[in-house]
Structures are given as C-alpha cells and as structure tokens.
Amino acid sequence: MMKLIRSLRNAAGLLPALCSAGFPLAAAEIVPDSKPPATTKFYGVTVTDNYAWLEDATDPAVRVWTESQNQQTRSYLDKLPVRIALEEQLEELYEETAANFFALQYRTGQVFALKFKPPTQQPVLVSFKSIRTADGEKSIVNPNKLNTNGTTSIDWYVPSLNGKLVAVCLSEKGSEEGTLHFFESASGKQLKDTIPRVQFPTGGGSAAWNADGSGVFYTRYPEPGERPAADAQFHQQIWFHQLGTPVTQDRYELGRDFPRIAEVTLEADAHGRFIMASVANGDGGDYAHFVRPPAGAWRPVTRFTDAIKLVRFGRHDDLYLLSLKNSPRGKILRVPLATPDLAHAKLIIKETDAVIESFEPSATGLYVKDIIGGPSQIRFFHADGAYQTNVPIREVSSVDELVCRRDDELLFRNTSYLRPFRWDVYDPETNKVHHTALAGSSPVEFNDAEVVREFAVAKDGVKIPLNIIRRKGIKLNGQHPVLLTGYGGFGISLSPDFDFTRRLWLDAGGVLAIANLRGGGEYGEQWHEAGKLTRKQNVFGDFAACAYYLIRSNYTNPRKLAVEGGSNGGLLMGAFLTQHPDLARAVVAHVGRPARKSFTVPSSATSRIPPTPPSPGPRS
User: Fold this and answer.
1) Which residues have a Cβ under 8 Å from the Cβ of 324 and sit 6 or more positions away?
2) Which residue in 236, 208, 210 sits closest to 605, CA to CA?
3) Domain of 522: which CATH number?
4) What pLDDT sits at residue 32?
5) Checking DSSP bridges between strand 346-349 and strand 38-42, what pairing results, if any?
6) Distance from C-alpha of 505 to C-alpha of 492, rounded to nearest angstrom
C-alpha cells in the first residue's frame, strides 16, 4: 500500500504534466505579498527578494499563504476528469506487480535479500537456499508484523559471517532514527540485545560482525547530554558490542577525531579478522579509510585528500582501492593488507573512457561495474589486472548490485527502461548468463516502445546525453506531449530504471526524456566538477539545451513540454522556471533540496534500503 499511495501522490505530480497533453490550466490566483521585500547585498551587489518572508515556515502569515495555495491547487487537480481514471488504473496495475528483491547478501549457502510486494507497506528480510528456483524462501524479519500500522521499517541489515544471526536496523515513522536489533536467521527469533542511536538521517549507520558472530562493531551517535542538542545527530563514532552484555559495557573503538559530519560504513573481510571503516567527510565526496587488524589498533589506509573513493577487501590478504587521483574516471590500485601503504600501491586497472563506479573481488580477479554516460557495463579482470571479458548484459541498462557468491560466480541485478529488474548469475567458465527466479514482472508490456540516445549541445559546445523513451514509428511533428527530467548534482548518475507507470504516459501520446546533465557522475569526476559550485549554471544551461533540442527536433513545442525533477532536481526546476518561463507549459518540482550522496555500498557490507532515486519519469 505504501508504494501505491506514493504512486497516487506522484500522480498528482503527473497531472500538471498531463496538462501539456491537452488539459486546460486554470489561471493562477495572484496572492498579494503580506510583507515588504527584503534587500540584501552580496559581494557589492544589492539583491531585492520579494518572497524572502516565505522562508519562515512558522510565521502565521506564511502558514495562511501556504494553506491557500494548497487549497487552490487541490481544487483544480481534483476536478481534472483524468484524475479518477488515472487513480483507478494505478490501483489495478499495482495489484498485479511482482515482488521486488534487492540488497542481496550471500553467506555460507544462504542468500539474504529485502523483498517488497504490495499491498504490504514495508520490505521484508528473507533468505533462500537457491535463487535460481527461489526454493526455501523464509521470512526472517517482517516489519509489517512487528507493527501492523506499517510504520516500522528496515533501514539496513547485515548477516553474521556464518549466516546464523542477522543484525537489523529498525526505525519508526520514516524517521531513519535507527535501533539495532538481532535475529536468528533460522527461526526469526529476536535476541534480547538492542543498541540505540546507531543511525540518523544526517549520516546513516552501519555495522560489521566479528569472526565468530559473538559481537558487532557499529556506528554510534552521542548519548543524550553527551553533546549539545545541535550535535545530537552528528559526530559518529565506532563502538563494539558483545552479544549478551549490557550496552553500557560496550567498548569505544574509533571516531573521536572524525569530522562532525562524518558518515561511516563498516565492513568485515571474508574471515572476520579485519574490519574496515570507510569515513565520508559529509557529502563532499572525500573519504578516509581505516583498518583494524585481528589484534592491534586501527590504522589509517587513506586520507580525505588522497582521492580514494572506495576500498574493498580482496580474497588474498590484500586491499583494492578505487582512485580518482589524476584519473577522473577511475583506476584501481592494490596494496597488501599487512602493509597498506598507499605510496607503494600497485596499479591494477588503468583509467579508460568508462567511469568505474564500483567493483567486486572474486577468487581469481575483479568484476568492475562501469557507467558510460548513463548505461552500465561489467568487465572482468584477472587479479593482476589483465582484462578477461565483458559480462553479457541487456543493452542500455543499469547494474545496481554485484554479489560474488563463491569462486568467480557473480550475481548481479540488471534493469532497463523497458524491462523490469532481473537477478542473473554469470558463469565465467562458460561466459554465459543464467536467469534466476528473482525477477520482476510488469503488468504492462513495452514491446511497442523503444529507447534512443540522442545528444543536445550546450552553449559551450558540450554534448549532453538524452535518453528518449517513445513509441516505435513516432512521427516528429512537434505535437507530442513530452516530459523531460534531470538531476545534475553530487556526482549522482541517472541510469536506466524501470517504471511501469510510464505506460500511462505513452498511451496518452507522450514521450519521456531523461537528461544526463553535468554535475552528475555519468562521465566521471570532471563531469561532476563541471556542474558544481561556481559552475552550477552549466547544469541549468544543459537542461535548457535539452528542452530546446526536443523542440527543435520536432518532438514537441513549448505548450506541450513539461519538466520535472526531485531533490537537487527540484532546485533545477526552480532555476529553469526562473530563467526560461516560456519554454515549458508545466514545471513539477519535488522536495527542492540537495540529497545526501553515498557511494556504492559493498554487497559484503551493510545492505540497506536504497534512497528513492532522482526520478527519470512521472514520479518523485
């Protein structure tokens, strides 16, 4: 039900876009300013803002203004004849959707996963003996039964190395204020241990088991009164808890010198001997890494200034490191685990045109997940860096999880714009991909649709990729309603994803366009840097160039163009509306704010419910 409600809510965002398909727009009522303009001087330039008074949401005048706007909007949207039909279609389609499986982890013959299937409101933690046939599916933690109101959710989970226990972070009412609980994987029985304040939305949370499953290393936020109230959700540290003992006896490990805005991810090696802490310095993209040996103190491996974005344990007492130092698209280094000296790291995989997003060590080598302007590819390398092959995946698709189960066998989750997710198994000995039973299904087909990648040209001559979802045989007559979306920030890439609700838009005669703007990570760190800080105008200009391209290419015209974005993309919508008010008929801005960026979480580390991605389609 939660996803259905979210879709119905998002349908409200789709409705203004549907106006570009021919539905009339009501004249907006002009609400007079109740307060005088604010005048501020920035670096010698005086700026007058007529709406600064709206920034204080607690001001009674602002509340009255907001309520009047909401009432006006609802009164218009509720009268649209298409709304009821759209709601009924979505209800019917969601009832037919198959379960979604994500955040997979493998432990000693078991596969753990989070499963979401409407009408349940929260994903459930399950395990399998075989994913090729989905035999032996077993529910371990069902938040929908822990709280029948549907307000308890799993933030993330991590199984012990032998798979007998699972640590699960649970939070209430969407707060992301997580408490760590422990469950037996065979019976689902909950242990008595609970650890509060392991997670907050400001920096997330994480945990890693020791070798014998008797305790966990975990992230801990300040106890009440330990720091000022303003710092209660900052200053992450790493502590250790021994199962069966009071939390008050937990042992401090590391973190008193971490930045206030540190975001920590913990991981154990395959044998539980070493623990690694990846420490993000907030959302700026800088990371430091620390390793704790079986006996001894934590030791630093990389610093924030080293441009190391990801470190993983190898299978043979080594560490692999993704470096952007003088390589904005990424290269992979290797150091011995016993002496992890970055100055003597060996270059294993050189930088290429593909952007390395993440990698998964195997018994004899490395699987490397790349992004090429938006779509993904997977390459397999020998441990010494020799290229072996590309893993066969769908064309124009994305890979968002890699799990190496044993030896060199790889599990990966593959999704395209026109086909739902599918977990596949790659066998390197035969170079074949085998499908598993963990595959999505769609209540609608897209056999009559196609995806084309075209390029708009920005003012400075840079080519901006446009992924266009359209009906086959479309006539470019300038009369199609088009919904254009983008993001362009924090190095986050808009990769192919599947959303069956796009069928409704295509059936209404619409075209969807997803822009891979600068500021994202589609072409690496240089692409990201070209759209941040003082270069943010490039993002706004890129998006406008995409809108102009769709018009000049006779897909649509300004009266039939709608644009949409969420979070950082919501900010983009505000800039687009301000700078190009006549270029689109409708502008939909969701939660206009920067999003907390996180690097790919290793499959062997904490498996969490991913945040709602910036949407390439009619949803937030």
Assistant:
1) 307, 308, 309, 330, 524, 525
2) 208
3) 3.40.50.1820
4) 56
5) unpaired
6) 26
Q: Which residues of the chain have pLDDT under 50?
A: 1-13, 15-16, 19, 21-23, 26-28, 30, 596-604, 610-620
CA dihedral sign, ordered 391, 394, 395, 396? negative
Give yes or no: residues 423 and 450 share one domain. Answer: no
Helix axes 2-18, 60-77, angle to 10 degrees: 80
Question: What distance in Å separates the CA atoms of residue 164 and residue 520, rounded to the nearest whole number?
Answer: 40
Same domain, 494 and 354: no
Cβ–Cβ < 8 Å for 109, 100: no
Among residues 160, 119, 161, 116, the alpha carbon closest in space to that of 139 is found at 116
| Separation CA 324–CA 336 (nearest Å) | 20
Residue at token pair 């939909």: 588
d(CA 113, CA 115): 6
Q: Identify whether the C-beta of residue 399 lies closer than 8 Å to the C-beta of residue 413.
A: yes
With left for phi above 0 and alpha for psi between -120 and 50, is residue 522 left, alpha or beta?
A: alpha
Q: Which two tokens stand for residue 538?
A: 């490039």
* 459 and 354, same domain (yes or no): no
Beta-carbon count within 10 A of 245 CB: 12
Task: Please name every residue paired with 251 in a beta bridge, in sequence order, or none if there are none.
Answer: 240
3-state DSSP of 94-113: HHCCCCEEEEEEEECCEEEE
Q: Tell which of 443, 473, 489 closes a domain.
A: 443
Question: Distance (Å, rounded) from C-alpha 494 to C-alpha 38?
Answer: 37
